[in-house]
DNA sequence: CTGAAAGCGCTAACAC
DNA sequence: GTGTTAGCGCTTTCAG
């Protein structure tokens, strides 16, 4: 299938008794080659197991069909699901990925990462790092200097940037409204870390739903977690003591919601009768929690796919010297999956 | 930080009034450059934001400092954790990754994937796809033809291959022995899909532990799942009917174990008093299941790190014209985390 | 210490 | 139809 040393176009040309140019024409399916020459060259190519070097091609064509992907937190399921979408769409569209994972979510010095990708001539960059702290600050300064298109995932709207994201505010609001509809009136919240933009959006959605229902929102109704089950446990305990009348809770992700369910079980609080619980994410396991968890489902796979589609669109556009359209913001609305943890009615 | 068009070495040379070779010497920290020339060139480089092209370098040096990573199932947490280890170790060792994800675990036609990686001049390949069905069959034929080193994760031992893996058999055996120690005598098993090598290993470990304890192992004591919580539920129901005396169960992964716990809870079976449960994986959430889950912890991050270390070692070795050492098999022993779901004593 | 020439593997532009 | 020349951006001889 492969020869031990990769053959070069020169060797193929020699073996087929033609010039390298002719071989080039054959491998690129150019029309102006005599059918029988083409045939002969093809045969030699197969025999030698020749594969053209994508590197050499990239150099001369000034185009690599390679995308840089910058991510963080692959040990968590969310970023991985997004990456899964990115890889599958990239494969479909004929692009290869260079992967970089930041060691921390809040890495601010992204210069070496971007430099490395650019030195490898990526055609575009997908920035799939959640917005945490100041970690997106650099876009203000550096962006116009980066010579390839970038599409961002999951960040606050900024002018002139292409962004693909899920509407966290909306999802949180829908979740909270569902609890209100079920007749719960004292609805607490366990948030993600407040330096995460997504956490703030989800909290804002929860808060807005309560206010629109004419309820007040006090600080004591919210506790901060860090996405882990462990932090969810402490947050729940804290919340119970500072907000004893709580009869329902909107939790910013499913893993923390899981430990709320577990604690409730341990303390003999019946869910959903005494406590309604709604999570966020739509983990595959969430229907198998006890009781099954009502949650806001976000399709991160689709998010990844769309991002790749979008960046390829921008790349093609720029290359075709078309008038670049304004950067787009693409927003997906997540959906509420209603299950047992929040159904009080009847 | 970056100029809008990437500067070339030629432009830098011209601006600094030297030849391109001199610039080359400066960026490669070669000794034989006059200090003041070096200084001048450095200044120009900074001003122009010049970054050498890794592509051009790879071409001429016949070395790219790039690794191909082939994975599958990134939407599951296991493969992602491994990938997380791979990225971090690659970063540490100065390698960049080209990522390919197979669309199915049992993809047999890997030729286009490998070709693509080779055409991009990867220095080595990490094959991080679990062994399922015939999906590793190709190694028998194609391997010697692939001109770069490959290291495999998680596959059956084969001669002449470098493999890094976790000892699934051992982990499963330890888990089962633990249940025996706790006094359980009728120990069932929910396996993963039997076309997975890992599933077969875990089942074999369970079976061996029972036999060594002088217990018989019947087909009725085992049911097959497909790793998902959903399949765990059906498998558990089936197992209860075909093996009613079951007092403990070793489940091949945590997600299926989760639904066993949930079903037990729903049916009023008390864990661990009436039913001992042990899982496999060591998911971060597993301590927060109810009751907290005893599980075999596998460090997939470490697995990924080690794989990269190993392949870089082989690459260096081959490049240094050293006598290649025999391909290694590196095996990690997983550890049992004992928690409430299996503690019957006292 | 520095530069000129050659070439990594390929393709664009032109000849014939 | 096909070959020649030039060059993508860099490094490796080898002069000087």
Topology summary:
The structure is a homodimer of 346-residue chains.
Chain A: H1 9-16, H2 20-27, H3 35-48, H4 54-61, E1 66-72, H5 77-93, E2 96-102, H6 111-119, E3 124-128, H7 139-142, E4 150-153, E5 162-166, H8 168-181, E6 187-191, H9 197-212, E7 222-224, H10 229-242, E8 248-251, H11 254-266, E9 276-281, E10 294-297, H12 300-319, E11 329-332, E12 335-337
Parallel strand pairs in A: 1-2, 1-3, 3-4, 4-5, 5-11, 6-7, 6-8, 8-9, 9-10
Antiparallel strand pairs in A: 10-12
Chain A binds a DNA duplex (16 and 16 nucleotides) through residues 8-10, 18-22, 24-25, 28, 32-34, 37, 52-53, 55-62.
Structure description:
- Two copies of one chain form a homodimer.
- Chain A has 346 residues and is of the alpha/beta class.
- Chain A is built from twelve helices and twelve strands.
- In chain A, helix 5 crosses helix 12 (300-319), helix 8 runs parallel beside helix 9 and helix 10 crosses helix 11.
- The model of chain A has no long low-confidence stretch (mean pLDDT 94).
- Chains A and B meet through helix 4, helix 5, strand 2, helix 6 and helix 10 of A and helix 4, helix 5, strand 2, helix 6 and helix 10 of B.
- The first copy, chain A, binds a DNA duplex (16 and 16 nucleotides) through helix 2 and helix 4.
């Amino acid at each position: 299938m492969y020869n031990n040393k990769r053959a070069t176009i020169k060797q193929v040309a020699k073996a087929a008794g033609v010039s390298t140019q002719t071989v080039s024409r054959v491998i690129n399916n150019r029309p102006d080659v005599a059918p029988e020459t083409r045939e002969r060259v093809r045969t030699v190519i197969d025999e030698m197991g020749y594969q053209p070097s994508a590197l050499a091609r990239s150099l001369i064509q000034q185009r690599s069909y390679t995308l840089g992907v910058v991510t963080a937190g692959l040990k968590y399921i969310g970023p991985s699901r997004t990456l899964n979408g990115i890889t599958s769409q990239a494969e479909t569209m004929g692009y290869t990925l260079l992967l970089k994972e930041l060691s921390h979510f809040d890495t601010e010095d992204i210069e070496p990462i971007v430099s490395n990708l650019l030195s490898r001539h990526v055609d575009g960059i997908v920035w799939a790092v959640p917005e945490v702290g100041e970690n997106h600050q650099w876009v203000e300064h550096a962006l116009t200097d980066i010579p390839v298109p970038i599409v961002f995932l999951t960040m606050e709207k900024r002018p002139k940037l292409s962004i693909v994201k899920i509407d966290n505010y909306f999802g949180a609001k829908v979740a909270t409204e569902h609890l209100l509809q079920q007749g719960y009136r004292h609805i607490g919240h366990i948030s993600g870390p407040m330096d995460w933009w997504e956490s703030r959006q989800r909290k804002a959605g929860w808060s807005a739903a309560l206010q629109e229902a004419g309820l007040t929102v006090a600080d004591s109704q919210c506790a901060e977690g860090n996405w882990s089950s462990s932090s969810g446990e402490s947050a729940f305990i804290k919340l119970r003591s500072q907000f004893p009348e709580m009869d329902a809770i909107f939790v910013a992700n499913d893993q923390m919601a899981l430990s709320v369910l577990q604690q409730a079980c341990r303390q003999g609080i019946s869910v959903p009768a005494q406590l309604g619980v709604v999570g966020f994410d739509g983990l595959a396991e969430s229907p198998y929690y006890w009781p099954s968890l009502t949650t806001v489902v976000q399709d991160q796979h689709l998010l990844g796919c769309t991002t790749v589609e979008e960046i390829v669109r921008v790349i093609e556009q720029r290359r075709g010297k078309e008038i670049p359209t304004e950067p787009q913001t693409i927003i997906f609305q997540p959906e509420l999956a209603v299950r047992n943890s929040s159904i009080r009615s009847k």
